[in-house]
Amino acid sequence: APFVRFIPTDRCNLDCAYCFQKSADPREMSLEEFRAYLDKAKTLGIGMASFLGGEPLTWAPICEAVALCSERGVLTDVTTNGTLLSTDRLHRLGEAGLDMLNVSADVVDPTAVTAKSSVFRRRLIRDLEEVRLKYGVRVRINSVLFRDNSESIKALVELAHRHGFPIS
């Protein structure tokens, strides 16, 4: 297997109307369980571990898990809604060896459908540029196109181009 997708928690701090990954299940993966799954995945020859959710940044040991992957020569990829990306957390992820960061953003301002608008916070953009330069983290913006966000998508594309972030 070239990569494995880890969903360490189904919890999310947002409630986007279109999201299929909704669960009130409070269970989440322990760091020990993660370590065992990672070790098993390594025996299968994986080269990359993706962290998804829910919102993977609600999982307390995310930085430790990224570091474990890095120590074992496994590339790491985290997809987040961006709302929990503080300056400190971004630097901790960079120091842990994060390779790729996908920040989901769908609107300029929160709506009834989604509140995924974190990339429009100036501080976050500066922080993303900094971790890209300092740690080599590849940053990408992900978007969901829906009926009412076409103007926001235009603004997202312009923001991505202005700062050199790929967008998908």
List keywords for this structure.
168 residues, five-stranded parallel beta sheet, alpha/beta
What does this structure look like?
This protein has 168 residues and is of the alpha/beta class. It has 5 helices and 5 strands. The chain has helices spanning 31-43, 62-71, 87-96, 122-135, 150-163; strands at 3-6, 48-51, 75-80, 100-104, 138-142. A 5-stranded parallel beta sheet has the order 1-2-3-4-5, with helices on one face. Strand 2 (48-51), helix 2 and strand 3 (75-80) form a beta-alpha-beta unit. The chain starts with a strand and ends in a 5-residue tail after the last helix. The relative contact order is 0.15.
Structural class, by secondary structure, is: alpha/beta
Portion in helices: 25-40%
- Which word captures the global form? globular
CA radius of gyration = 16 Å
What's this entry about, in short?
By secondary structure, this protein is an alpha/beta fold.
Provide the fold topology:
Elements: E1 3-6, H1 31-43, E2 48-51, H2 62-71, E3 75-80, H3 87-96, E4 100-104, H4 122-135, E5 138-142, H5 150-163
Parallel strand pairs: 1-2, 2-3, 3-4, 4-5
Helix pairs in contact: 1-2, 2-3, 3-4
